[in-house]
Design goal:
The chain has 560 residues and is an alpha/beta fold. The chain folds into 3 domains: 137 residues, Rossmann fold, CATH 3.40.50.2300; 143 residues, Alpha-Beta Plaits (2-Layer Sandwich); 234 residues, EAL domain (TIM Barrel, Alpha-Beta Barrel). It has 20 helices and 20 strands. The strands form 3 sheets. An 8-stranded mixed beta barrel has the order 12-13-15-16-17-18-19-20, surrounded by 4 helices. A 6-stranded mixed sheet has the order 6-8-9-7-10-11, with helices on both faces. Strands 2-1-3-4-5 form a 5-stranded parallel sheet, sandwiched between helices. The radius of gyration is 35 Å and the shape is elongated. The N and C termini lie far apart (79 Å). The structure holds ligand C2E and magnesium ion (2 copies). The site of ligand C2E has 25 residues, from β13, α13, α14, β16 and β17.
Length: 560
């Protein structure tokens, strides 16, 4: 709450050299206000500066020794904070009114004083007016940077666009690359300085070019401005100004622009879209500008649609589970060994939606947990059905997303599934992607350890896709390494690729881990993998992921 409003009894400062005047005003106001008094301008100014956050009003005599009322007003006028505190001038001379008004006085009381009720009324009215103004200012402006707050920015634009409907304006989002690191490494105070500097640079830009801006939250800024002919030039000049002001560290800005017309969406949406554009170049050091385009727009609309439909789609059975076989290549003839369960969304209108589209989306908002739980149960029920139908044990692995590992009920859910479908840990494996181990490594490693203690076999998925350090293998609990497609792709055309794959296989074997190579599409790749000592291969060379009925043909072929 505003400090100013929080004081139970507001303070009024009376500055007058005549004691009788001070006493009289005290007497009149004492019931409602805490009255402070000073006998001259110097004393009065000292009190005002010390208590500027709590004093609600000053009553000021003009003719005083040491420092007169005019000088007092002048000093107050030059100080941004003191200027906010209203002053009632106590005077017997009509002539002084204009001069004091120019110096910022708010009202006058004629000596000898009027009736106490009138004095009261005038004091109350001024205090109230000032407080209202302060409240408005505190919701209108961001405290740290002085830019508009997000709420005010949205309201103001909405109002403007109602009155000037034909004006097309762009929305620009500005963000600081890795701002959390700036804060962590250089401290909050430095972080605040960066934010204030960026705000200053934005304000300077808009002063010259028109438009206005807000700080939305943390290090996100939005600008509302006429379409700029060269946004690349704009962001480069903002960046240059920032480099000039902050030379100790290189703080990098990135910018997203949305030019979607306002009749197509309200301002909040247009800001989100500018932010979406800006996010597409996150961590990309080759770009600092991204313009929201039709492709992004369609992607956003699709995302919203998929998120809204996920629950109904699960109930409606639109999520199908496909199975991709893994073949043991150690013998003379490849042998069907196991399979991976891969989800597909059979959307009634959009057709087959690939997990590459919806899994990253659902990982962001946690919806993945619901989809995964459905996939895990479906896969378990399928393993159990094949067991009965063919009297075989064909282990299936399911994918566990990083988000699933944060679910406190995870162990219970998975154990429950095995019990429900009468499966053992040898028939149902878990794949945890390598990137899950990045970040909160300790927590994730603990969660995975707990699953292993329960008996689950863990396959590290996508090993070598970008995040791994070989060293991390020594601390992470896994049973099987799934070598990422990228490591397999070129082994038949490029010696270096082959050597890297061989090295990974050597290390894995040294650590007693089995290796599944993913994404083998050619016979030659499979041969090379076999020579290098790889045990199991999953890839289009053998089969694409298949719906259960088609997968059964592979089982039957194996038995023939
Ligand atoms: P992943 O777990 O690494 O699955 C392997 C992906 O590689 C699958 O893509 C598969 O179709 C593809 N693939 C296999 N062999 C080849 C090949 O020879 N060439 C090429 N080009 N691709 C091959 P898919 O099914 O599109 O799945 C993509 C990713 O989505 C999966 O990668 C996995 O991370 C995730 N995913 C799939 N289903 C689920 C699920 O039920 N839950 C969770 N959390 N993630 C899933
Ligand atoms: Mg997988
Ligand atoms: Mg994989």
């Amino acid at each position: 709450m505003n400090e100013f409003m929080d004081t139970r009894r507001r303070q009024v400062l009376v500055v007058d050299d005549e004691e009788v005047n001070r006493q009289m005003l005290s007497f009149i106001l004492a019931e409602q206000y805490e009255v402070l008094s000073a006998a001259n301008g110097v004393e009065g100014m000292a009190i005002l500066k010390e208590k500027k956050n709590t004093i609600a009003l000053v009553m000021l005599d003009l003719l005083m020794p040491e420092m007169d009322g005019y000088e007092f007003l002048r000093i107050r006028h030059e100080d941004e904070d003191l200027r906010m505190i209203p002053v009632i001038v106590l005077t017997s001379e009509e002539r002084s009114e204009l001069r004091t008004l120019k110096l910022g006085a708010s009202d006058f009381l004629k000596k000898p004083y009027d009736m106490p009720e009138i004095i009261h009324a005038r004091v109350d009215r001024l205090v109230e007016l000032t407080e209202n103004r302060r409240v408005i200012q505190s919701t209108e402006r961001d405290r740290l940077t002085g830019l508009y707050t997000k709420q005010y920015f949205f309201e103001y634009i909405t109002m403007r666009e109602t009155y000037f409907p034909s004006h097309q304006m762009d929305v620009v989002a500005l963000n600081i690359e890795k701002f959390h690191l700036v804060n962590e490494v250089f401290g909050r105070e430095f972080g605040d300085r960066v934010l204030k500097t960026v705000a200053g640079i934005i304000s300077d830009y808009l002063d010259d070019n028109g438009g206005f801006a807000c700080r939305s939250n943390a290090d996100w800024f939005y600008l509302y401005m006429e379409c700029c002919a060269d946004y690349q030039k704009m962001i480069d000049s903002l960046q240059m100004a920032l480099d000039r002001s902050i030379s100790e560290v290189h703080v990098r800005l990135r910018m997203g622009v949305n030019g979607v017309r306002k009749d197509q969406a309200e301002i909040e949406r247009r800001c989100d879209w500018a932010k979406t554009a800006c996010d597409t170049i996150k961590d990309d050091y080759t770009k600092n500008l991204s313009v929201y385009d039709t492709a992004m727009h369609e992607h956003s609309l699709l995302s919203i649609r998929l998120i809204n439909e996920v629950d109904a789609a699960i109930l409606d059975g639109q999520f199908a589970v496909y199975y991709q076989p893994k073949y043991d290549i150690t013998g003379n003839k490849p042998k069907l060994k196991s399979a991976e369960a891969l989800v597909r969304w059979q959307h009634p209108e959009l057709g087959l939606v690939s997990p590459g589209t919806f899994i990253p989306l659902f990982e962001k908002n946690g919806l993945i947990q619901r989809v995964d739980y459905h996939v895990w149960r479906t896969a378990a029920s399928q393993v159990s059905a094949w067991k009965k139908k063919y009297d075989i044990s064909l282990p299936v692995s399911v994918n566990i997303s990083r988000i699933d590992l944060y679910d406190p009920a995870l162990e219970e859910k998975l154990t429950g599934i095995l019990e429900e479908f009468g499966l053992s840990h040898e028939e149902y494996y878990l794949e945890v992607t390598e990137s899950a181990y990045v970040g909160d490594q300790k927590f994730i490693a603990e969660a995975v350890k707990r699953l292993r203690r329960l008996g689950f076999k863990i396959e590290m998925d996508d090993f070598g896709s970008g995040y791994s350090s070989l060293n991390s293998l020594s601390v992470l609990p896994v049973d099987v390494l799934k070598m990422d497609m990228k490591l397999v792709q070129n082994i038949h055309t490029d010696y270096n690729s082959l050597h890297i794959a061989e090295a990974v296989l050597d290390i894995a074997h040294f650590m007693d881990l089995k290796v599944v190579a993913e994404g083998a599409e050619e016979e030659r790749q499979v041969e090379l993998l076999k020579n290098a000592g790889c045990d199991i291969v999953q890839g289009w060379y053998f089969s694409k992921p298949l719906p259960p009925e088609e997968f059964e043909k592979l089982i039957e072929a194996e038995r023939a």
